[in-house]
Recover the amino acids of this structure.
């Protein structure tokens, strides 16, 4: 990659548009604007591009620290991958999957349904059917506008499931997919409407619970390479790294957000560079908006809204072995267990790699608990959980690493922001509204592809079109 202006001293530049954040959303917006003939500066706080996608070599092993998977419906991402000349490969899925029942017993199975007992399976299928109907009826674009929006947004997903079913195992298994698998918050902490949005953004709840669909394939060379390729095409006079934005000021003293005077411009201050432009796209997650001083201050509604949005917490566990030993046992590497410390595990072996890699996830309250422990004890417990699925060989990886985006200064959580109870129907309609010359773009605000790279790209493209006037 070319030098992307990692600067050590303050510089002043003029552009048509400034983009805050060099993740997929910000880079896609910049790419669209440059293609339309606009001059752009992208200011990134980190020393790298990619945002919540990040690929690193650790102890000789290539690991996907952040987001990595592509599902078949993510056409925005798939189209860009092809356009950039990148390749994809399918996640390994041959062989039996493993289910750990609430009593700790281990079961192998094939197909999409847990071997959870006839009654529980029937209840899971019924609940999935109800959620599929809601997702189809409410949709991803404007869930807050549905007649049942307030009703579904003021009851937690945990309690709503139990209003529908007294089968605790079925409720817990359904909860894995949204609470631990996507929103990374306890199911009592987000609403049913938020869960329906998650399902609708994937096409249906059935898609969301089908790991072969939602975790279909990966990018050869890592998902971060998508952002790296976009940044390289933009050139070394567009993307500024190590450039955290401190202040956004626009207009003159007579301007208000209600009556913005077009053409008055905006000035964006970062540590190494100051950019004077006409518009700004803020392409970072909502929990980071407060890191920027806005002059004049954002309207009251914005301040309220941002206090009701937060990211969850998850430990993404990477364990690399000399060989993918589970395959020799006829196992796919896929496992689920609602009561397990790692509620999910998958084969995450890299393209063309002879070694085997597993990825597991420790979410929400379970992550809180093990973060209180010394690192060695946390590692022991997590590997013990993986061994429950795949055998004692899982206890001894040659490389072990824990992704923790919650401790990252410029992320502070995973995977994306969601609203607390009642927040989505109350603020959702206003979350993307421009404020003066300020526009917003990130996966956290997406409809289709919500919380995914695909959604980030869609939001970047949409924000660019809004800046361009259409």
């Amino acid at each position: 990659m070319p030098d992307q202006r990692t600067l050590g001293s303050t510089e002043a530049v003029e552009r048509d548009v400034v983009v805050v954040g060099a993740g997929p959303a910000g880079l896609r917006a910049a790419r669209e604007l440059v293609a339309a003939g606009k001059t752009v500066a992208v200011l990134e706080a980190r020393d790298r591009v990619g945002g919540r996608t990040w690929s690193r070599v650790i102890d000789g092993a290539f690991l996907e620290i952040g987001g990595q998977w592509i599902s078949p419906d993510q056409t925005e991402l798939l189209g860009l991958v092809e356009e950039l000349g990148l390749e994809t490969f399918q996640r390994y899925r041959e062989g039996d999957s493993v289910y750990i029942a609430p009593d700790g017993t281990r079961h192998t199975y094939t197909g999409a349904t847990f071997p959870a007992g006839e009654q529980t399976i029937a209840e899971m299928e019924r609940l999935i059917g109800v959620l599929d109907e809601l997702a189809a009826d409410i949709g991803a674009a404007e869930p807050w506008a549905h007649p049942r929006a307030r009703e579904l947004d003021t009851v937690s997903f945990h309690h709503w499931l139990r209003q529908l079913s007294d089968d605790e195992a079925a409720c817990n298994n359904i909860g894995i997919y949204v609470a631990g698998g996507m929103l990374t918050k306890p199911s009592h902490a987000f609403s049913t409407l938020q869960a329906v949005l998650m399902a609708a953004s994937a096409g249906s709840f059935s898609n969301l619970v089908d790991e072969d669909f939602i975790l279909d394939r990966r990018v050869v060379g890592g998902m971060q390479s998508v952002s790296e390729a976009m940044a390289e095409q933009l050139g070394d006079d567009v993307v500024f790294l190590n450039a955290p934005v401190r202040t956004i000021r626009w207009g003159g003293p007579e301007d208000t957000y209600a009556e913005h005077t077009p053409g008055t411009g905006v000035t964006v201050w970062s540590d190494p560079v100051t950019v004077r432009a006409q518009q700004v796209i803020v392409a970072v997650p909502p929990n980071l908006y407060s890191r920027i001083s806005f002059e004049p201050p954002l309207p009251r509604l914005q301040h309220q809204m941002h206090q009701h949005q937060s990211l969850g917490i998850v430990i993404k566990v990477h364990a690399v072995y000399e060989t993918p030993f589970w395959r020799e046992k006829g196992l796919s590497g896929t496992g689920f267990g609602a009561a397990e410390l790692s509620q999910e595990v998958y084969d995450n072996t890299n393209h063309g790699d002879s070694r085997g890699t597993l990825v597991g996830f420790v979410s929400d309250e379970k992550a809180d608990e093990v973060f209180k422990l010394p690192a060695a004890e946390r590692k022991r417990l997590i590997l013990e959980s993986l061994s429950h699925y795949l055998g004692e060989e899982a206890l001894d990886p040659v490389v072990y690493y824990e992704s923790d985006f919650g401790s990252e200064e410029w992320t502070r959580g995973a995977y994306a922001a969601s609203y607390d109870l009642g927040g989505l129907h109350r603020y959702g309609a206003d979350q993307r509204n421009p404020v003066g010359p300020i526009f917003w773009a990130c996966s956290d605000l997406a409809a289709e592809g919500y919380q995914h790279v695909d959604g980030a790209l869609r939001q970047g493209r949409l924000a660019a079109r809004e800046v361009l006037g259409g």
